[in-house]
Design a protein that fits this description.
alpha+beta, 3-stranded antiparallel β-sheet, two-stranded antiparallel ribbon, 5 helices, 5 strands, elongated
């Protein structure tokens, strides 16, 4: 009996070894979901701006010949508008809930309040303050850390911004290249 390890101790050691893996996966799911939700929200906000609205960019100094180097650019994808959006977009994370895939046990984050007021299927979606605050914190971290990349990607219309930014550029979703484009 002296050289034998008690089964409870062996189980505790096994669980302790698996805990970092589970926490890392949960964190990866959270950051991936936050990135994808962040891009979705930014793209939606951009689409709401009147395409005829412009903003003057460039130098407002008068050149020696009396002219100015000012250019009018579409406001929706301007750096000024994108920066303004990045300052407040993470507040929208309170409109998201957590959904767990029953086969993979991976977490994803889905909107629980539609932009246009249509009814949404919320079966299997966990809605609570802890989920919203965790998602908001992850969103704010991503918006701060990847502000330049977000502005770079969103300043021009492009396809699959979520995948290109969240999976390829930042590796926040490197596990999720198989996620359907419209999941969030």
């Amino acid at each position: 009996m002296r050289g034998r390890i008690p089964p409870a101790f062996g189980l505790a050691v096994a669980l302790a070894a698996l805990l970092p893996v589970a926490c890392a996966r949960r964190s990866q799911d959270l950051h991936c979901g936050a990135c994808r939700a962040l891009v979705d929200e930014l793209e939606w906000e951009i689409a709401q701006v009147d395409p005829r609205k412009t903003i003057q960019m460039g130098s407002f100094r008068i050149n020696p010949d009396g002219s100015q180097s000012v250019v009018e650019v579409p406001y929706a994808r301007s750096e000024a508008h994108l920066t303004e959006l990045l300052e407040r977009v993470c507040e929208k994370m309170k409109e998201y809930g957590e959904k767990v895939d029953p086969s993979t046990h991976r977490k994803s984050y889905v909107r629980v309040i539609s932009h246009d007021g249509t009814k949404m299927d919320l079966s299997g979606v966990k809605i609570d303050g802890d989920v919203a605050s965790s998602l908001k914190f992850a969103c704010e971290s991503i918006a701060e850390e990847y502000e330049d990349e977000l502005i770079e990607f969103l300043s021009h219309e492009a396809d699959n911004v979520k995948d290109r930014l969240c999976s390829k550029r930042t590796d926040l979703c490197d596990h999720a290249l198989h996620i359907p484009h419209d999941e969030l």
